[in-house]
Task: structure prediction
Amino acid sequence: MTVASEHDRDLGDPNDVSDEQDVVVSRRSMLRRVGLGAVAVVVAGAGVASYRVYDNGVLDAGSGEPYDPWLHWRDDPGPAGTVAAAILAANPHNSQSWTFAVASSRVDVYADPTRRTGTLDPLLREQHIGLGCALENLVLAAAARGYDPTVALMPTTSDPTHVATVELAAGEPQSSSLYDAIGDRHSNRGPYTDSGVSDELLAALTAPMAGLDGVEVRWFTTDADKAALGDLLVEATEAIVADAQQSSDSFEWFRNNRDDIDRHMDGLTLDAQGLDQLTLTMAKILPATSRSAGDQFWLTQTRTVHTRTAAAYGIVTVVDTDDPVQRLDGGRLTQRIHLAATSSGLALQYMNQITERIDRERTTGTAATFAPRLERLLARPGRQPLATFRIGFPARVARRSPRRPLAEVTR
Amino acid sequence: MTIRRNTIRQNTIRQNTSSPNTSQRLAARLGLAGAILGMLAGLTQMAIGTRIPDWAGAKDDTIALGALTIVLSAIAALAATRLRTPEPLPVAASVAVVIAFAVPAVLCFTTVGRLWYLPGTMLLVACGSTPAAGDTRDLLAVVGANWARGLVSLLGAFVVLMAVSATPISTLVLGVGGGLVVMAAPWVSTQTRPVVVVAMLMAALPFAGVTWWSIASPLVALLAPTIGITTLRRTPVRLERHQHQP
Result:
């Protein structure tokens, strides 16, 4: 079959063209054109994908300025170096709600009221836990740098944002496995393997509790216990997703693309979601997800990955969760557990959906639906649940989360 | 079976002008003005980009992106000066000018944000005016004959684009080098066809291998040699013409 067209005539020798001339192009030529057109469409698709790879940092995930603090936290031998370690601590939604005042022999730790997570943490429970985590890193880094740190919690009665003062007296350098794990500790939101965590190993994680009287950990290791807590976690996640304000406040801390990460250097990222490589790349190449799509993804992950593959859960308990000092101590303990877990090759992820709903219900005056159920599961009269996490051996390596540089968090 | 279509058209009366036509003058002026504004945008980005984040696209590295904008704008400026000739440009030169306008016009929207809105628009208009200045049919003929080669070069450019953001540096070098080879391969002598195909494979595959999870780089590595083979014909793509058989 041959096909003629006006355009074909345009491509030929003008001498061959007459007013009434038919120009015939072979079927082969036509098919070739159609093929090239189709290929052009595929190439255009490859172009879009390539641009997304470039623009969303698919090939340089976990590097660049937002991730530099993970590389340089050991560099400074002085007090500023202790802050470099502190900012790598776990904290709620990676909001990094902290500032530090650094002097030659003292570091003051402050809460940053501009970086709260809204209705997810209306009573500032998580903020204080995160500050406790940072404080623990700071103390470990101080000891490793040859200081003898002395911690005073909530030292200024008139200033509730002043959460700690750490005096740095001269001492002997004391490194530790916990200190060495600071740069490798990341929240692992991926699947965990089938391997169980022995009671001995769990006990070893909570062994370093010196100076943290009043804080305990309740482990959930039996299948029945894990299933009951897992169900409650899924229900709490559903409740957060159904609560438009909590959902919005959560979404506000999600950084969907590399530009946002570079700009804010905080928040939760796709890299930190524990996805496999191909799924992660697809998520970065495709358009950014909406809040509702993100919520559904989170709910599905909670149901099918987080609760399904947890080898054990831990709940940190205190006597009074409204007491900032106990919250800070609870944060210090959770950080120690996380560092010890990292040293032992274990993965850990905080799962605070239940306590977020408990605090939400308290502040909105609605009937308490989660608090009594969690207390029953806890079965520790006189103690209150402060923070929940799951633990296990990781199926995937956890990735870094962005951090603001020291200059932005020091006064 | 033959499908025939009778066409009635006058032979084209080709312009035989000794001075550039209106479109070419317009393209030259718009291109030059857009390029100069583009360079100013790049300078602004470098100087005060961190203080005008919204206008500068809230970019993290304002210095490098500003410098890149200046370089690309300078290329557009050179292309604009090439248009300022007393005679219409040859087809090949027109294609080069179009590319020199189009690449900065599109790319710099991502480097300096809103600062590029005006120069980018001017360059795009200049880009559109350039083909109109010459014989459009000749231009289309050249583009049509080299369409596949252009696609392969475009794929090479995609590899370079991906590679410039890659870490570690060895991956970056591998990707940029391979991408440049892929870009150049379709345009070398057709007498060395096997060598060219092998070179294209050698250039695209290693980068695709070390960045397999990116999806895009394996796709490009697959497409480039596949399309590239079709371009490496000993004779140029030619349309067959037949006299109408009653």
In short: Chain B touches chain A through 53 residues (CB under 8 Å). Residues 22-48 of chain B form the longest helix (27 residues). The first strand of chain B starts at residue 2 and ends at 3.
